[in-house]
Give the backbone structure.
Amino acid sequence: MRRSAIVHQAVAFTLLDPHVYLDMGLLVGTLGTQQPMPLQGWFVVGAGTASLFCFSLLGFGARRLAPWFARPRAGPAGGPLAPASAAG
């Protein structure tokens, strides 16, 4: 698959996700309007930085943990919190 097709799919997946608009518009917007006017700009900077950090950690962490999740025991049947019927 070409790189441009991958980028287009990633952008479409991100921008067509309704949770993006719910989280940013409602949750962060509501919290931001509760801040005093002089601090609202700093709130936007902090929320953006936290979002960038969170998604970067998620992306790089997924790459690093991919071999661990590829093992057969990484599934829910091998975990200590799995229901007894899933353990076999």
